[in-house]
Target: Cd2+/Zn2+-exporting ATPase
Amino acid sequence: MGTGSEQVKRELLLDGLDCANCALKIENGVKKISGITECSVNFVTKTLSLHTTSDMDEQIVEEAKRKVLRLEPHIRISEKGKPSTAGRSTAGALQHHGHAHGHDHEHNHGSHDQHPHDHGHSTAGSGHVHEHSPHSHNHDHDIHAEHQHGHEGHAHAGHSHEHGAGQTKVLLARLAAGSVLMAAAIWSPLEGWAQLALFIVAYLIAGGDIVLQAGKNILRGQVFDEYFLMSVATIGAFAIGEYPEGVAVMLFYQLGELFQGMAVNRSRKSIQSLMDIRPDYAHILIGTGDETKRVSPEEVRVGDRILVKAGERVPLDGVVKAGHSMVDTSALTGESVPRELEPGNDVLSGFVNKNGLLTIEVTKTFGESTVSKILDLVQNASSRKAKTEHFISKFARYYTPVVVILAALIALVPPLLLNGATFADWIYRALVFLVISCPCALVVSIPLGFFGGIGAASRNGILVKGSNYLEALNDVKVVVFDKTGTLTKGVFKVTAIHPEGERTEEELMRLAAIAEAQSNHPIAESIRAAWGREIPTEGVDGYDEVAGHGIKVKVDGREVLAGNAKLMQQANISYTAPQTVGTVVHIAEAGTYVGHLIIADEVKDDAADAIRALRKLGIRKTVMLTGDAKAVGEAVGHDLGVDEVYAELLPQHKVEQLEKLEAAKSPKEKMIFVGDGINDTPVLARADVGVAMGGLGSDAAIEAADVVIMTDEPSKIAGAIRIAKRTRAIVWQNIGFALGVKVVFLLLGVFGIATMWEAVFSDVGVTVLAVLNAMRVLRVQES
Model:
């Protein structure tokens, strides 16, 4: 497998991972394994990504699996592209707090090995798993193992947010039964032990599974988590005689968890629907006739021909061989205007065929296709975490133990030091303090916020490769553009025709087209395109290309010259030297000057808007680097309103210029470089954020850049910055809101004003609101 220093990336799908706290625990645990250089857990897609050194690859991955199962035994682990392996307790597919009793458990596995018809449920095999109702069936390798082991023990699936309809009914039935028994205990004439027994039964129905899970976690060495906090608080309430409150808090907590689960599920599905571009199937043509066979996109090979009917998604990248049609490219590029396809055109997977029937010859396997690459990029984006996410991870690790110590001090110190203070009163306050302290809102909503921002960007045709780059876009103050292919189209076009004497534009173009008929130079191509019809060949002979000068050709016995000023000087023909910027092609016939053409690289339609939009967003300086002539570069820069232009640069000079700009800005300011990704690789890598234009189908761009603009439009850069600012605003709203509410309620709890009811609201309620707020990121449009 190569040398020991070679890095291998492996992805494990963690089915049953439904709590952001658990994701943090797994990430922190697996990181400590020797030989793992990088590790991240994506709570949204339930994926563990790890980088290992290749010579120890298998042992390390096995150790990582063992670690995951030690921390969360209910999780079922499968590897991208491999059969899934059940955890020690395969009944772990039973979801939330053991709610899925009976036979619901086989319906919610969400493994990556889906049936090809399960639309979008497993995007590119990397864990984009949709939740199923109790009637959906997954075709999972290990489904029989589930049936064999399903009743060995109802392992609790962690802090699950994934409620199938059957599980929800079971939970609601338990909540109803607990409520009825609690009401009976309060209002019945029973007293003493009989009343206490009713309260205890109500409590066990409502939250016995939470206490059980807290006990299991303590045995595994995980003391400070939500189950522990809830168990201590409610059992403590019983200990000081607050029976109704102990039961009520547990009921309210479970109800809140149900709502929280629904909110998280909704946001997961919304993010996944943004990326629901994975094709379900391909119609492969068999033999030479029209007979087709419906297969999974993974089964199609390069060179196979596939048929795409109206309304179907193009499953693989290829070339149109037959048929004309309009295709909707919006899922990949964010463009609303359909694109026209005809034989010979390239087509990308993920496009939707609008009307015609297309026969496509496949040029890339599914794994290499555009749609796979995009899904991979978006799903792996969360492995590069933003500083805010790192901060919250660390914060959560130290926060809960500190809170438990403070709660112990609140319970013990005041009764010993203050006159008239009772232990029962201060223990109650300490228990309220414990319930309030859970950091769930932050741990759940912040990864969702960033992932939502990345999803919203992808819907607008902007691929962001990591939360860290999305966050970095907020601090961009300097934007550096390459010229050709970025601000200009990179396509030469005849922009002016200047005949002299009695000649017409038509005659001048005809002579130029005849002269350039056989050249493959880009300038010759632009002249032929401008002529736009068949080039007359009668009476044409003696074609001669003069290197570095132009072309000589005889037309009806008269010599025609087409080329630069040097060619005219060589033939002693006086010519007009235009002031316009661009490449000049002079034309002469039989020793007489007949005029010239101006050929220039066209500026993109939205380039000027892009510079204006960046200025509005507070970008301090825009710079253009180009290898083109100084006059050309400065003219384009002036037209677009770019602040600084550096021309006649080779690729290494671009890096040097970027380093000078880097030195001139403050350390807090970020700089982005925007290029077309092919010859700009060194500069893309050197900038704080490298943005590649026109990344669709360009492998070099996707590899080198941190952000890929899929449509070739420079105005999307301002869109990316807008989405980044909106995402950060929502993430910080959640941090401020969650911490603010916690601080207020903690103080109210200490002074005895807040009861456990308010405490549970401040925990569960805040989480639900924070998750719903995070979902607003998904509605962000870049314009």
User: Anything to note?
Assistant: Confidence is low (pLDDT under 50) at residues 83-163. The longest strand covers residues 488-499. Residues 165-272+384-449+726-779 form one domain.
